[in-house]
Amino acid sequence: xxxxxxxxxPDGVYFITFTCAGWLPLFEITNGYxxxxxxxxxxxxxxxxxxxxxxxxxxxxxxxAFSNTGQSINSIVGNGKRFMAYELVKLLKExxxxxxxxxxxxxxxxxxxxRKKIHEVFEPSFDRKECRTIEFIQQKxxxxxxxxxxxxxxxxxxxxxxxxxxxxxxxxxxxxxxPVISYMELQDIxxxxxx
Length: 195
Fold this sequence. Notes:
single chain, 39% helix, alpha+beta
């Protein structure tokens, strides 16, 4: 479900998905996976929790526990996408990848051009599902972690083999490239308390 309307609550656990414009594999092309990790770092500094994730070549899935910081979840995700977009464009410029930069410029709609937007790096909306039960979080983590095994260009044999994923932690109890908090630990955290 694409989110264009406001998420009503200031906190909660959400399964979030956002996609590169035109499904271009921008994370792979730029080797810009670190841009997502930088956003995760920022989220942690603000009091949020990364429960699980996978960064695919052209999209990101994450289970994030958002604390009440007084900022809407839509704004938090939107600002994160904006930050990552600037970083990815910078990397494309450093690579002199003009063909893709031109394509991203052409995808900017007239309204956004009037607001001085130059590149359409991500699809305008993002998908989200509220995770109200442990079973639902487990279901979403399984989906996230199996993504690289199903993706034709990657075809990881085991979920924990793909480094840009939290699967290693959930399958081996050893943190992977980016540390996450277990969904079980969230039960002891009051996300509604204003940070």
